[in-house]
Structures
1.
Amino acid sequence: MKIIRSPREMQVFAESERLRGLRIVLVPTMGYFHEGHLNLMREGRKRGDCLAVSIYVNPAQFAPTEDFESYPRDFERDRKLAEEVGVDVIFSPDNSEMYPEGYQTYVEVEGVTGNLCGISRPRFFRGVATVCAKLFHIVKPHVAVFGKKDFQQLVTIKRMVRDLNMDIEILGVSTTRESDGLAMSSRNVYLTAEERGSALSLSRALRIANDRYEKGERDAALILQQVREFISAHPSARIDYAKICDAETIKDVRKIEGEAVLALAVWIGKTRLIDNHLFGEPLDV
Amino acid sequence: MKIIRSPREMQVFAESERLRGLRIVLVPTMGYFHEGHLNLMREGRKRGDCLAVSIYVNPAQFAPTEDFESYPRDFERDRKLAEEVGVDVIFSPDNSEMYPEGYQTYVEVEGVTGNLCGISRPRFFRGVATVCAKLFHIVKPHVAVFGKKDFQQLVTIKRMVRDLNMDIEILGVSTTRESDGLAMSSRNVYLTAEERGSALSLSRALRIANDRYEKGERDAALILQQVREFISAHPSARIDYAKICDAETIKDVRKIEGEAVLALAVWIGKTRLIDNHLFGEPLDV
């Protein structure tokens, strides 16, 4: 397994792989791998010849008040896990190479970022779209793999790729969960034992909502009222948002019809967790 | 010579050319070719195996008050001229393919667009950067060729390419001028006979400024005062801006040192013309 730090070196390697006719798959990550990341890599492994994983905690997607500095990092552990899953190359650049002095270009995806996390974290998607555009130009993938846990991020990246005519297939992979239903996240390490219990309120709320949907309920407000009451009853849980949105436009819907997603962001103590469920898809919680 | 209208068809063709090991050169244009465009193509011809020219009047870079509708177009004439210069493929898409319903992604280059045309035409560079990013992803060039007449545009595109790690060499080509010094522009066709005389005030002002520079003057304000007085003395000439800027940051400078550019935008009647000169470079007017 190769480890590449320099964007230019990564680009030269990627171009030579493409010229050899190989198919490149990229899994962009912020590292500190859990089973969710490894599943993205396993899915990616099946879809190309050269499996690249980027490990980069992107400062452009964190607000000054957020956890950029404390975000968990463990490169040695990540390296071993990636190698076990059959990764060919880890690309892990420095901030000074990704955002050198004088840096000033950003990709803005407008409509789909105007709700949910786009409200709570105003510069977040601009940072995500920008770093993904950069990673796509550096690693030159044919396919890029993202988790569905970050649903709005996946929609944003798909929208960017389509709008900017990037010749890349975007693959969304189902959320990996702990056995009790908690969506895997690098931020779960922040949780105390008590908070870990309250964190289950997200996936259980998805279950409750889905049960009502399967019994025929289509009124978003009624489902959301129950979801909010359920989550709020948990100690140290504070809802950032609980919304039902059109899965393509990310606009709130009143009635669930077509593709609709229930999206949750909940503060559990000082840790903000997200989870979501696309109505009509299987839900293993 | 191939003519391709569909972005996807262009992309497939470009990818197959790259896989054959060919070097693609792109000259992005809005069509209505003059000798300046043809010189970009001639320079491009030397730098690769497959010479692509895009012809696309990009609505995203025009304000509602500007000349998008009336911008001169003549595809048949352009086609013949391109063929004579040895172009391999013309890419000329429709608006509905470039900006389909639901389009919402834009590339913003911040610092270098904060002066000059970025003030007069607030959405212009966002439109230019966005369409160039799209064209780069569609045509997949190794080299893209731009005229130095649009100096701030060239700086903006170079900045975008560097910041977003696009693996493309950007080549700037010297301004092509009429025998009397007028910088070639598709918009020159708008000029009446009298205005054509006043239009010479731009290139002549560059000459005057360069003469003072060569005699040792380095005070930007003194040079600009003379430039402004000279241009304003011409009938139907109204200065939009006349500034001396750092050639990389596009910030105004007081003293000419390092790379500095004199940039002019002047309304001649209802036609806005631009021209510029990089101090220290040869000036053939």
Note: The domain at 186-277 of chain B is CATH 3.30.1300.10 (Pantoate--beta-alanine Ligase; Chain: A,domain 2).
2.
Amino acid sequence: MKASKFYFKTRKEVSQDEAAISAVLLTKANFIEKLTSGVYNFLPLGLRVIRKIEQIIREEMEAIGGQEILMALLNPRKNWEQTGRWDTFNALFKVQSKYGSWFALAPTHEEVITPMVKNFIHSYKDLPLYLFHISDKFRDEPRSKSGILRGREFIMKDLYSFHQDEKDLEKYYNRVKKAYQRIFRRCGLNALVVESSGGTFSRFSHEFQVVTPAGEDLFYHCRSCNLYRNKEIIKNTKKCPQCGGPLKELRGSEVGNIFKLKDKYSQSFDLKFRDKNGESKNVMMGCYGIGISRLLGVIVEANHDANGIIWPPEVAPFEYHLMGLLKGAKKEDEAIKRQVESLYEKMLKRGIEVFYDDRENVSSGEKLVEADLLGLPYRIIISEKSLKNHSFELKERKSQKVKMIKLKDFDKIIKGR
Amino acid sequence: MKASKFYFKTRKEVSQDEAAISAVLLTKANFIEKLTSGVYNFLPLGLRVIRKIEQIIREEMEAIGGQEILMALLNPRKNWEQTGRWDTFNALFKVQSKYGSWFALAPTHEEVITPMVKNFIHSYKDLPLYLFHISDKFRDEPRSKSGILRGREFIMKDLYSFHQDEKDLEKYYNRVKKAYQRIFRRCGLNALVVESSGGTFSRFSHEFQVVTPAGEDLFYHCRSCNLYRNKEIIKNTKKCPQCGGPLKELRGSEVGNIFKLKDKYSQSFDLKFRDKNGESKNVMMGCYGIGISRLLGVIVEANHDANGIIWPPEVAPFEYHLMGLLKGAKKEDEAIKRQVESLYEKMLKRGIEVFYDDRENVSSGEKLVEADLLGLPYRIIISEKSLKNHSFELKERKSQKVKMIKLKDFDKIIKGR
């Protein structure tokens, strides 16, 4: 992609409202733009990252048998009344049609999926069933300063599982736990599995927490027995409830959670199946969420330095940042540009995702600053000096290490797909 | 994909509310499920088609320079007041936060994109610019019986273009017109370009109409000069306004529209640029929409027979439907199943999209009926008879033509990607 043809213009100033470093960096680097408090637009660079996160999640959900669906966001009031959450779900946006009927704007989808699968699940032969969807969600949060870490509108992946009994639910719950760990690792995050409240029916649910100073959650870690537990359900913050060892307080951002619903929603919607003996039983359910737009923010919270973002390779909007270091001397600059163009064409042919900063009206100094801000994993630079040595510079954004590489070795070093 | 592992169960009965044949067939064949009037969930089969339509649109938008973004659905009231449409946009859903502020649920995105690009467009060097997005939209329609042809919540692609002058807008408008014709052709539709009202500023806009009995729009065609014009803007329905020839009335479903906005929204949001002479001028805009979930419905309206859907190849959820015709005799059935499994493995290896109906509890007769309903382009059947001839049956859904093909010729006939 050529920068001159791309919606790309970094910003020096960001609204004072933005307190979270992720929102500041993502706004400056042209990934997102705030529409109003808690509501963001995704610009071409930001959408590329969102799509990569979605693809990682999709692959891992399909690997554990998940089938993708897409559920509606306008939810009929009666579905939410049937579970009692029309009145009790605190952050529910409610909207009335001018023709009378009321809708909830979906903040989660138990009220849609549970009655939906009644057309599908009749016998034990129809179980287990795993359905996931990726879409917008809405929560009427008080004004916050967390940027995209906590939005009123956000992108989320929900997975719902349906089982014959608690044992099968437990088995799948543990498979999802492992799939989630793979997802966060691929996104460049070290997510800790933290015990949290299980609600009415289960002892625990689990949250996936990434340690960051901007995190909204507090949790505790015991080094002796490696317990992680959320502050909400720990009674004594001095001693580990499991082994009595000392506890360390940590601050984190939640990127996912998994929850055994058991038959809470099956009861509300009378979702039953006939077991092997012909007996009618409630279906057991689990639900598993990942906040995708939040993940975009947490990745930046956990991967940046004073100069900008440092994208983990698998979610970077492009893998390479390519540019010529121009001197202002016409003849030399032309030679550099020709060489850069030729590398660009080569990379495109091989299917390498490359962002080529070919802009004419921006100085090389500014381009270098913007490249650090943008934070692509690798940078390839041709300068007058490198060209004299028949070489290019290859810089890794994370380590800041620079290697001089002979142009004739380009094919060996820079591999396509 | 094996049917036994897939969310797949056809239905015999569909709610009497569904009047449109597309909604009836798509519900029976397990592509969509109605949540409430005008609001649908997309099941795995339906979502596969939606994704294919989206991918066709994405490719054609990128081919004419479009860059993809994703804009928010919760729109601040003030943006809609600034254009005057908070009060005048008839189908606007309005929702109030419990913390006081009001939002519109986006039915279209001029109110978001115009102020957004003010951070990007300053000089003529930043123009032209083409941005598109694919997402949900909301319109508070009266209850209708059109199924997914007219929803309260629907999936739409919007493209917005920004130009220095009307001439450049006109040029791009015509490029989009051609791109739209390619999109609809790839979706298996013959979409007619119909002149319709241009609003306050332009003489005409253009709609893309597919002739169907379920269509909500009336338009006229003159065979002498090949004019197509919408009923709304034709005064005399007897005579062609262009050549005086006789007019034929047609009924159609609109699948897209393109519109020159000129500086209507640039004025509202003071979107200006400096031209080559340093003069400040209003940016010229165009907007171009395609209803994606509606398109799913129109494709079915235009491609079905008494037995079910007939998917155009490029948007079919799978290309091949594979099954064995079992007789109930154990030994013979085992031989058939082994052969079908082996073909299935071959097809998977080659990246062919195949739906293998391996269900044990469904009779072959039912499976054949369901295959017609589902409507995949090609069906491969192994029967006792075909196996004796070392052959398989290849049936084209559209023509219903059957060929017997030798198993040894499989590799020649069935090609992967």
Note: Chain B has two domains: 11-305, 318-413.
3.
Amino acid sequence: MVVVLVRCHVKPGCEEAFAAASVENAKASNREAGVLRFDFYREEDPTRFVLLEAYRDEEGPRAHKASAHYARWRDTVEPLLAEERTRERFEGVYVPERHLGC
Amino acid sequence: MVVVLVRCHVKPGCEEAFAAASVENAKASNREAGVLRFDFYREEDPTRFVLLEAYRDEEGPRAHKASAHYARWRDTVEPLLAEERTRERFEGVYVPERHLGC
């Protein structure tokens, strides 16, 4: 499994617009076949956010970046960012696909 | 929702023992009532690992730290660490509880 952690730092005043676009993107991304799950977090600094993306395999990130919702998110948030977003990549060693209560 | 990201840097040669203890801890943690999910990742540097813990609310981390499996994990990994583990905390803005395929 491939896990990607993206950090976004937005300009003051752009928090709500960024959050709205990112929740919409997360909802659509969770419907992708290659996505195990796609979360959206806020840091203690309210202008800093995190996207946590877990994919089944290497094809997952490629399919995500080719999606219409990703393009819409990227274009919407570009002018809201205070600096370029950063990206870390992990190997998912233990990532339960579904909550055990399912 | 409360999200905690823990980073652990282990001594060379301790990777497999650390991973085994951490997978066991993640499996047990996913059965806690207050845990939405508990993942375990490896960074590109094979001595560096990440625990990604998503809880329903503030009570979740407290219940986790009071569990027998947490105490066992903490005591097992303590001598394997190259340095003290670090911890970041996020607010979960959008954290789907279950994969939509459920």
Note: Chain B has a mean pLDDT of 94.
4.
Amino acid sequence: MLAAMPAIAVDAMGGQHAPEAVVQGVADVSLHTGIECVLVGDSARIQSILDGVAYNPEHIDIVHAGEVIGIDEEPREAVRRKRDASLLAALRLVARGRCAALVTAGNAAAAVLAAREELTLLPGVRQVALASVYPRNVDHPGQDRLALLLDVGATVRCTPPELVQFGLMGAAYARVISKVEAPRVALLNMGHDPAQGGADLATAHRQLAEHADLHFVGNILGNELTSGRADVVLCEGVLGNIVLRLLESVGSMAVDLSVSTAQRNWRWRAGMAIMASGVDQLRALADYASYGGAPILGLAHLVIKAHRRSNALSIANAVKVAAKAVRDDAARAVAGAVVGAG
Amino acid sequence: MLAAMPAIAVDAMGGQHAPEAVVQGVADVSLHTGIECVLVGDSARIQSILDGVAYNPEHIDIVHAGEVIGIDEEPREAVRRKRDASLLAALRLVARGRCAALVTAGNAAAAVLAAREELTLLPGVRQVALASVYPRNVDHPGQDRLALLLDVGATVRCTPPELVQFGLMGAAYARVISKVEAPRVALLNMGHDPAQGGADLATAHRQLAEHADLHFVGNILGNELTSGRADVVLCEGVLGNIVLRLLESVGSMAVDLSVSTAQRNWRWRAGMAIMASGVDQLRALADYASYGGAPILGLAHLVIKAHRRSNALSIANAVKVAAKAVRDDAARAVAGAVVGAG
């Protein structure tokens, strides 16, 4: 087994297309990169899927876990009862240092709860944030085509200092992953006026603006989310979750236009082919399942959450994002951002 | 002057295309309906615009107001200082009974503040809600192609009883305007589990579910907003504002695809023409500026807020919505819904 870099633990049983898509994604990665993965889950099923595809056995290890937390299972009860779930077993590999990061496409709420239980919070951090990436327009050269949105559901309400922490951690992560020196941080709100949105958002605005380590660009409105105005967008979990799902569903409309082409008449097919470049902008919104996942921030270890609908390509991308984050020590950058602030 | 029905006061100076678009919209209405309008604003400018278009003078009155509240002006200060603003003058016509409703496409926050000042809150109502309509898919015959979303910015945070009031008022309004016997009311949240989204949303869910006068269908997620699942969607103002603007901007992408056709090559034009029916679903999202406006709910009088970007058609539609609401006594229905609940 090659071990130039610590391995990535992959929850083989997490996601709507698990374990098949997860195992295939990891198999692809094993052929085309030097990344070592540990697939955690039902070892017999994992091996049987591997036997049907091409893979490099030197890059893949399997660790058995006998239980699975379902994608729509009530998370608290599941994490409490299923101690041998693939998610928990994979997290323990990370906690013990056997692996450097976890990738899971499974139940997001369970991943947040289990990660808080099995891993250590960064010193000074009060709440973890679940981040997501989404495509937006790029308004200057070198800007990532993806923006980071957090929190999208790990929290319900956040205090202003918690939103500032999310900003520091999100910017540190974006700096490492997107190679942008000073990611532009914005606060999602109902107006540009710093006083808008109530006392908490106004206080968060002031604290973000005063923070020397942040490139804070002010409030961002709903209609600006798809612009290149910000690289890191901050909000409470309920709001982030609703915005993310809405972005995804509206993007899906554009995809529906194209995937159903086969069932439509020739006029439609001709139109679609000619229009292809035009709908790209919208289609990108729904394609983001393939963008490789985003971190749970606030923990001493890296956890990358891939989209629950991840296919093999999405899983491969998420594993590559995790490996990049490990190689460039995103965990240390994120920890340093918060410690520097505390 | 015909006066089969009380007149509609129209803020001639409100909106990005005011006063031209507003006056033209009212002129159109005067030719094709029996609705009487009172245009409030700079009387010389209003008359000069009217002189350039066709209109029926029997259906239009002008009331002069010497000041204008700008579309992006700080609302509190503007409402306090500009006592002769067209918005305030128009509201006073409603408060005094000269007009039965107000239509304005101007500064939304100023409209809410001024309406709270010049008009009376319904007994038992604690907060007014600014509603908006947006297009969504229809999943059964007779369902309105528009859903009502509230609050979209009059409030910041709402208590559970306030969200229940919004539900009662929104359903009463939708019942009158959409002619749906029992509008389906839903709570915007991050999951279907009634306990999700924090204590306030969980309590609101319980109170909505227990309310005998409401057809409550549970939580609605971000990705379900464009479905036909609910006719009235409830949320706090910051969230509603962000969702509304996001819906609008993503829809605008689809419109951009078509309005810029002239600048594109023939392939693009051909594709666009063939695709027309396919992009309708998305384009509808951005066209909603023309849907005629939505009410500020919680007041003893009718105030219809039209989109700030309203053109003449949008204004005409908003005036017709206001006239329909007056004719069918939406104000009484809304008041009765809350009193019945108190």
Note: Chain A touches chain B through 49 residues (CB under 8 Å).
